[in-house]
Write a structure and sequence with these properties.
Elements (H helix, E strand, L loop, with lengths): L10 H14 L35 E3 L2 E3 L12 H4 L12 H10 L1 H8 L1 H29 L3 H21 L10 H27 L2 H7 L3 H11 L7 H19 L6 H23 L6 H40 L1 H28 L2 H23 L5 H34 L1
Antiparallel strand pairs: 1-2
Helix pairs in contact: 4-5, 5-13, 5-14, 6-7, 6-12, 6-13, 7-11, 7-12, 8-14, 9-11, 10-15, 12-13, 14-15
């Protein structure tokens, strides 16, 4: 067969040859039609609105995920309408490696979701641990530096610096505050400051175990405030459960070897202050998260505590307070003790709030009672405080009464929540 065309061609052959020359030419146009060019093998710009075929070869493993550069080596982009008429065209799909890697990334979340008691248990452990360490270190400081007003300021100041640093890095992000919210938080912060200072006065004056025994009366003051100030009806079962608390604290106080009126009255004022803090907190309910809320309360309380510390203890500190403490333990230990006691104070309060958010009221109530038992027990062991048999029995009765009260109150709260959900 000959490759060249016979000179005597038919009109059909001429048309076919003209079409062939037209398609093979890169510059010819007919009747204003756009020139036809050979589709480019690959382009550098990706048309997002147009699907395209992909080359599945090649790839790099970076940070646990398979990255495929060839996904961007698209053949060409075309209108969506032409895709349906084009055979062997595939839409962009995630590769199997990416899907498996995503499942691998989610594995840790699945583990904690499967075993949530591990996380909750860790929160309880850290709450107890930080609280016990705070109480022990706090009492050791008072043994060589008996200035509770100044130490209270240090507690709050270290916590405020911690909060400001957390806000600076965005963990958590600082919540905005306005004048209306500030007015609601000021009474809460005032009660928080007064309760904190008086607790430290009691810690400095008497044994840690005795202060915590007196502070076991706090549920009694809460119930009384709810009944007579807020006008809430308190069930008779709650009042009866508080009887062992009052009897136990009275027995422990009568035979406490470290008893003095300053420590006793200060602990009682602390109970009343924290009771009013709870009342004002209910009135200042806000959508702000607990971390930001506690940070703002700490900042306000710090400004409240500074003037009394300067007025009541400032002259003594300048004359001999600082010099005596440094002479006893050294400057490095003195400064490190103040820093760490402030950190433990802030962190255990924050962990207590976070733990409350993770568990039911009944669980938190039991945990709070056990925490007080841990603090009393460890303080007696660490400091070697001698207690009489009557004090031990009275403390046990008081703690048992707090446990019964907490259980009854938590069940009542759960029943109220159940009624609200059903309604």
């Amino acid at each position: 067969m000959q490759d060249n065309i016979h000179p005597h061609q038919t009109p059909l052959h001429k048309c076919h040859n003209m079409e062939s020359r037209l398609l093979s030419s890169g510059t010819t146009t007919i009747s204003g039609l756009p020139r036809l060019t050979k589709p480019a093998a690959r382009i550098t710009t990706v048309a997002i609105s147009s699907p395209a075929t992909l080359n599945t070869t090649g790839g790099n493993l970076v940070c646990g995920r398979q990255l495929r550069p060839s996904l961007l080596n698209l053949h060409y982009s075309s209108p969506v309408s032409s895709i349906t008429n084009t055979p062997n065209r595939h839409f962009l799909k995630p590769c199997n490696a990416t899907a498996s890697d995503s499942a691998g990334d989610a594995a840790p979340v699945g583990f904690f979701a499967k075993y949530p008691w591990l996380v909750t248990g860790f929160f309880f452990f850290m709450w107890y641990f930080l609280n016990v360490i705070f109480n022990i270190l706090n009492k050791k400081i008072y043994n060589y530096f008996p200035y509770p007003y100044f130490v209270s300021v240090i507690h709050l100041a270290v916590g405020v610096v911690y909060c400001l640093g957390s806000w600076a890095v965005g963990l958590p992000k600082r919540a905005p505050i306005d004048s209306n919210l500030l007015k609601l938080l000021i009474p809460v912060a005032l009660c928080h400051a007064l309760g904190h200072v008086t607790s430290n006065i009691s810690f400095a004056a008497v044994a840690v175990s005795f202060t915590h025994t007196i502070k076991a009366l706090e549920p009694f003051f809460n119930a009384a405030a709810s009944q007579f100030i807020l006008g809430q009806s308190i069930p008779i079962s709650l009042w009866l459960s508080l009887a062992p608390v009052v009897i136990g604290v009275s027995m422990a106080s009568l035979t406490e070897l470290s008893f003095n009126w300053l420590g006793f009255i200060s602990a009682m004022i602390s109970n009343i202050s924290f009771t009013y803090r709870s009342i004002y907190s209910k009135k200042a309910m806000t959508d702000m998260d607990s971390t930001n809320l506690y940070a703002y309360i700490s900042i306000i309380a710090l400004f409240v505590c500074i003037p009394p510390a300067i007025i009541l203890e400032g002259p003594q500190l300048l004359n001999h307070g600082f010099s005596d403490a440094i002479a006893k333990v050294g400057l490095t230990k003195f400064l490190s003790d103040l820093f760490w006691v402030g950190m433990f104070y802030h962190l255990y309060n924050q962990l207590a709030t976070n733990t409350l958010e993770r568990v039911a009221p009944l669980t938190h109530a039991v945990g709070n009672v056990l925490k007080r038992v841990f603090v009393i027990g460890f303080s007696i062991i660490v400091f070697g405080n001698k207690i009489s048999t009557q004090t031990a029995i009275g403390t046990s009765i008081a703690i048992a009464g707090v446990a019964i009260y907490s259980l009854i109150k938590a069940k009542i709260e759960e029943e109220k929540r159940g009624l609200k959900k059903s309604a």
